[in-house]
Write a structure and sequence with these properties.
This protein is α/β, with parallel strands linked by helices. It has 14 helices and twelve strands. The site of magnesium ion has 4 residues, from helix 1.
Length: about 350
Amino acid sequence: MLRVGIVGLPNAGKSTLFNALTRSRQAAVASYPFCTIEPNVGVIAVPDGRLPRLAELYRSREAIPAAVEFFDIAGLVRGASRGEGLGNQFLAHIRQTDAIVEVVRAFADPNVAHVEASLDPARDVETIRTELLLADLGTVERRREATARKVKVGDKAAQHELAFLDRLAAALDDGTPARALALHDDERAVLAELFLLTAKPILYAVNVGEGALGGGEAATLRDAALREGAPVVEVCADLEAQLADLSPAEASEYLAAAGLATRGTDELIRAAHRLLELLVFFTCNEKEARARSLRAGSSAVEAAAAVHTDMAKGFIAAEVIGCAELFALGSLAKARERGVLKLEGRDYVVRDGDVVQFRFHA
Ligand SMILES: Nc1nc2c(ncn2[C@@H]2O[C@H](COP(=O)(O)OP(=O)(O)OP(=O)(O)O)[C@@H](O)[C@H]2O)c(=O)[nH]1
Ligand SMILES: [Mg+2]
């Protein structure tokens, strides 16, 4: 399962958001900085309105959503890359994630200390960016020393790598995250070995408290995020965390009363899922309707492997229909009748929303 790390300054509301996401009180929350030291881990279902409709069509006894793991990490402060705050320990935890959700504090509350003493979301984003860049620069420099030693003893391949590491270090030094670089395949391989923090896809979760995001600094933040191609999602972490104990109906009522149409956390989970470049395909029968995550661009046989290795080994064909088409027709029988149920081979590229039944030799 892919893992998303929740990153940000202390007291930004990371653990509050984690609890809102997991609809639990698993993570300790406090108004003092560095409340979280050991990370909290939770598996979170990806909300998908298509799943209950499919479960109904197939008369499935159970509906099982796709899931992503969220990892609530200790707060990061200015100087973390040099070991300030919880420094290196914190950075090691981020290294273990596949994508980053950065919580940006945009709520004002005199009872909750701000480590920078004033509210300024755009500055906070810059602070975190700088620390991640500096940490990566350190990683690249250590690798560069090792590579330079290889070049000295006449290793030809190392020369290429050294040139790439120089380019990489210059980019980081210039404020460009590793994810923004255009890379050749061999460079991509070196980058993968470095586990750089700025190579991970990122999205910003702006914690707006009970109010809405507005004003100049919010616009600056959005502009900056857009320039780097990062999604921005607004959440009311504290409000949504309070919904954890309510039934879905009560929660909707509460949200409506607060003037919110949807849960920001639902949007956040879907955005994180997209950030991981995942799509969802469905397998459905009477036992269960199940949403499954798959890397975008994967083939039918790779999708089969995501269900069971035996299905991939004995793969014969995949019977496929897009769920939008299926909903329009109203039943699988009709889809069969109309001949819109397609039989696809192992190289078929799976699309988001495909309902797939695999045929395979047992
Ligand atoms: N007013 C207000 N307070 C919030 C909101 N979100 C979080 N808080 C409060 O802010 C404080 C810090 O929240 P946490 O979730 O513990 O913050 P954190 O980012 O996990 O902090 P560290 O673990 O110390 O890095 C707590 O007192 C929360 O109740 C919000 O949206 N509005
Ligand atoms: Mg915390």
